[in-house]
């Protein structure tokens, strides 16, 4: 019996190793759950609701955790950089960022990509001189949407705008995408002979304050949701046709009331969804830069309750 004891022990050990191997191979693989942080201006504004719906759907499908950082008190690029640094210190696997200002952001971008993954919202990488192979983007074609916006005005009033005055609400002109929209609209209106009576910019409250001191134009154009929100009361008070790019709850209500004549609505649900999807791809499989251009839809009071437009204005789960 003593002679067989070492043999028995060896068999037992081999049996344990074999069983452990079989158990390990048959057990489901535990996949890493990645954490992604989203830092955008005015994150509590309802203009981001549909974006968040897209984020939540992608979060469920991709099995990741997404933290949309509260940016209520974020007023400067320095404030945003502090929030970015905090998320990186907390171990985020990737950042989805719309910069509050596009000025002097090259060093910020360079610093972020040296420490974690980055996706930029509403920003063209062409604005940067640095190598952005490690940065993905999800954005609108701002020149196209601005051109389409002026076309909506022309469709209703004609292309000859000589002796007509136009007021423009531009919100944050420190952002690259807003500058692009503004420059495009200005160029097209100038060629149509229109006089740009005024351009107001800044926060919602700042634009509303500026509107107290401007002349009454023939038409108004808002270049994003905040711009339209700020111009609704003024347009209603003086019965001024208002056109713009938007999609906030206030925008939709004003469209339904006929205050906004025509509105271009970016598919921000897909912007949120694609942002998370692209970020997960980058985390798992590092790749050369990808850019996703988001669609937009032309919506007015007559077609806002069509099946397609309802799904854009009022997505399920919003």
Major sheet: arrangement of strands: 2-1-3-4-5-11
- Rg is 26 Å
Coarse morphology = globular
Distance between the termini: 75 Å
Helix content: 40-55%
Low-confidence parts = none
Provide the residue-averaged pLDDT: 89
The run of helices and strands is HEHEHEHEEHEHEHEHEHEHEEH
What profile does the largest beta sheet have? 6 strands, parallel
Bin the strand percentage. 15-25%
- How many strands? 12
Summarize the structure.
The chain is α/β, with parallel strands linked by helices.
Walk me through the structure.
- By secondary structure, this protein is of the alpha/beta class.
- It contains eleven helices and twelve strands.
- The chain has helices at 5-26, 49-62, 77-89, 106-113, 142-157, 176-191, 204-210, 225-238, 249-257, 268-284, 307-313, and strands at residues 35-39, 65-68, 94-97, 117-121, 135-139, 165-169, 195-200, 219-222, 242-245, 260-266, 291-293, 296-299.
- The strands form two sheets. Strands 2-1-3-4-5-11 form a six-stranded parallel β-sheet, with helices on both faces. It has a six-stranded mixed β-sheet with strand order 7-6-8-9-10-12, sandwiched between helices.
- Helix 2 packs parallel to helix 10 (268-284) and helix 5 (142-157) runs parallel beside helix 6.
- It is globular, with a radius of gyration of 26 Å.
């Amino acid at each position: 019996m003593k002679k067989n004891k070492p043999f028995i022990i060896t068999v037992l050990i081999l049996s344990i190793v074999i069983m452990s191997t079989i158990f390990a191979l048959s057990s489901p693989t535990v996949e890493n759950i990645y954490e992604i942080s989203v830092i955008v201006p005015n994150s509590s504004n309802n203009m981001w609701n549909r974006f968040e719906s897209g984020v939540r759907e992608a979060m469920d499908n991709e099995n990741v955790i997404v933290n949309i950082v509260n940016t209520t008190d974020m007023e400067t690029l320095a404030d945003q950089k502090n929030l970015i640094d905090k998320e990186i210190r907390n171990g985020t696997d990737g950042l989805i960022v719309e910069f509050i200002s596009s000025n002097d952001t090259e060093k910020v971008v360079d610093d972020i990509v040296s420490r974690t993954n980055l996706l930029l919202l509403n920003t063209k990488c062409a604005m940067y001189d640095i190598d952005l192979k490690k940065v993905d983007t999800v954005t609108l074609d701002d020149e196209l949407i601005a051109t389409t916006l002026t076309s909506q005005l022309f469709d209703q009033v004609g292309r000859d705008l000589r002796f007509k005055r136009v007021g423009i609400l531009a919100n944050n002109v420190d952002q690259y995408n807003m500058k692009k929209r503004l420059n495009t609209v200005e160029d097209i209106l100038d060629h149509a002979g229109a006089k740009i009576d005024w351009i107001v910019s800044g926060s919602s409250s700042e634009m509303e304050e500026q509107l107290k001191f401007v002349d009454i134009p023939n038409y108004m154009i808002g270049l994003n949701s905040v711009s339209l929100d700020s111009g609704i009361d003024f347009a209603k008070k003086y019965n001024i046709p208002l056109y713009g790019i938007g999609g906030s709850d206030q925008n939709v209500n004003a469209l339904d009331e006929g205050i906004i004549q025509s509105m271009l609505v970016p598919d921000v649900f897909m912007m949120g969804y694609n942002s998370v999807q692209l970020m997960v791809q980058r985390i798992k499989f590092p790749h050369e830069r990808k850019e996703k251009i988001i669609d937009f839809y032309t919506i007015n009071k007559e077609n806002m309750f069509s099946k397609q437009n309802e799904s854009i204005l009022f997505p399920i789960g919003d």
